């Protein structure tokens, strides 16, 4: 039932993406307001935004490629797609990883366009729902989504165009300071989160409920020092505590012979994200609502055929420096494939070259955290966990350490470690928490932000030399500068 409900919402949203003129509506104002005041009408307005979260190639949060997830993941130290010496794979991914990308990079432009197209849809939904005097919880849901999108924008690009009314020419949208937009995001979340539904799962699987709203607030506060220069650790902890009050728990990490990777833990990244731990998921169904490519993209062809019955794309690899941080006892290490594999393939630990001449076909450790469910050329049906309770625990641990209370941090950190099969840490340090976030949340889009917050992003690693501080934000894409002459490029690009 809940899958049918969400699928219908997302399909309507995808169909609505081509509509860019608010005045092209078959309803007159009275009938339109009456429609959007109904539960079905309100969901229709929200669908335009939810449909864009899953989106498609070059226009999505995660699941598909060449947009937000790739921009933030390949700029970190956790994964990279090398150009292959056989001529396969564009250079974009390796350029992001080595910090040599230019403002014309397609993935940067795609991410910018996706964020602002989604903000446009959120503004439209808020206008429609407000005019119709719709259920306040639905108006709040649209406002929380818009705040989340602006949070993604300032996290990636710093000072960005800011508008809440679609009746403005794109060439005149003002560029606002990161700290000012931060204040707007916090204000919008605080004003609206408590109006959201407390329902977990069911019709709210894949939608922003109260707990997902507080999770966004926790994330925004957690990175306040990056955005404004003033940390807000106590506020981040309070918001994380609010999420914890929603009744979430860690999903079991017990052994499971029926799992391709041997543990129930990997159910978190399967066809449906379990409600016990998942706070917000991206609903994905192969050939219906986009697709999840991450496992398929990593496997090479014969290994993919042997494991999942479908040829892999031979793309993503895990740098050996990152892989080597995992303890052999850690059940999360099971996601990596190295050495001899099914299909007569042997993956090497190391990659000889990223760009020129590129890596040989079987070079590099592979990742199947999202072990593909029902795969084909469009991807797989694995849903994507945007936020999980494990992240909440790690936020609680981090904030306690930063507030000078390491002993209070230990129980939060150790819950995550215990599930993974690792020993407790009595007095965690920030380095312990940083490492644990890398072990627990890899391949989920959080690593670049964590590296920046912990002061690790500019350090050399693998093929990556030290980077200047200007790389802490991405370039504003050239196409955006051309469309809006009032915008100023970020320094260093």
UniProtKB/TrEMBL annotation:
Domain RagB/SusD: 320-457
InterPro entries documented for this protein: SusD-like_N, SusD_RagB_dom, TPR-like_helical_dom_sf
Subcellular location: Cell outer membrane
Top-rank taxon: Bacteria
UniProtKB keywords: Cell outer membrane, Membrane, Signal
Ranges for domain SusD-like N-terminal: 90-222
Protein family (similarity comment): Belongs to the SusD family.
Protein name listed in UniProt: RagB/SusD family nutrient uptake outer membrane protein
């Amino acid at each position: 039932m809940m899958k049918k409900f969400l699928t219908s919402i997302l399909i309507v949203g995808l169909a609505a993406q081509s509509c860019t003129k608010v005045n092209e509506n078959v309803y007159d104002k009275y009938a339109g307001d009456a429609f959007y005041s109904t539960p079905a009408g309100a969901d229709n307005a929200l669908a335009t935004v939810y449909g864009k979260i899953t989106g498609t190639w070059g226009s999505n949060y995660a699941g598909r490629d060449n947009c937000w997830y790739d921009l933030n993941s390949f700029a970190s130290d956790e994964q990279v797609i090398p150009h292959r010496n056989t001529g396969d794979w564009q250079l974009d991914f390796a350029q992001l990883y080595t910090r040599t990308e230019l403002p014309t990079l397609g993935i940067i432009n795609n991410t910018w366009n996706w964020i602002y197209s989604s903000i446009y849809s959120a503004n439209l939904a808020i206008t429609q729902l407000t005019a119709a005097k719709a259920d306040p919880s639905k108006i709040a849901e649209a406002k929380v989504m818009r705040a989340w999108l602006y949070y993604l924008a300032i996290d990636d690009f710093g000072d960005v165009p800011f508008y809440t009314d679609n009746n403005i020419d794109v060439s005149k949208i003002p560029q606002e300071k990161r700290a000012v937009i931060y204040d707007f995001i916090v204000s919008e979340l605080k004003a609206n989160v408590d109006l959201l539904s407390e329902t977990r799962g069911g019709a709210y699987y894949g939608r922003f409920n109260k707990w997902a709203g507080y999770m966004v607030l926790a994330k925004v506060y957690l990175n306040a020092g990056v955005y404004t220069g003033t940390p807000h650790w106590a506020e981040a902890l309070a918001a994380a505590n609010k999420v914890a009050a929603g009744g979430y728990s860690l999903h079991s990490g017990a052994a499971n012979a029926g799992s391709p990777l041997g543990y129930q833990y990997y159910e978190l990244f399967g066809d449906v994200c379990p409600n016990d731990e998942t706070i917000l998921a991206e609903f994905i169904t192969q050939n219906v609502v986009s697709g999840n490519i991450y496992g398929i993209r990593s496997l090479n062809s014969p290994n993919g055929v042997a494991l999942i019955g479908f040829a892999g794309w031979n793309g993503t690899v895990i740098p050996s420096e990152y892989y080597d941080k995992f303890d052999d006892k850690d059940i999360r290490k099971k996601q990596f494939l190295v050495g001899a594999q099914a299909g007569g393939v042997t993956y090497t630990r190391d990659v000889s070259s990223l760009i020129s001449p590129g890596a040989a076909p079987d070079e590099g450790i592979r990742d199947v955290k999202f072990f593909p469910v029902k795969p084909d050329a469009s991807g797989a049906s694995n849903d994507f966990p945007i936020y999980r309770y494990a992240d909440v625990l790690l936020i609680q641990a981090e904030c306690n350490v930063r507030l000078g209370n390491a002993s209070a941090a230990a129980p939060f950190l150790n819950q995550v470690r215990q599930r993974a099969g690792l020993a407790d840490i009595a007095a965690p340090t920030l380095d312990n928490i940083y490492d644990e976030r890398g072990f627990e949340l890899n391949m989920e889009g959080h690593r670049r932000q964590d590296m920046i917050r912990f002061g690790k992003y500019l350090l050399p690693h693998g093929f990556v030399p030290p980077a200047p501080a200007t790389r802490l934000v991405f370039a504003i894409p050239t196409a955006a500068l051309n469309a809006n002459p009032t915008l100023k490029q970020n320094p260093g690009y």
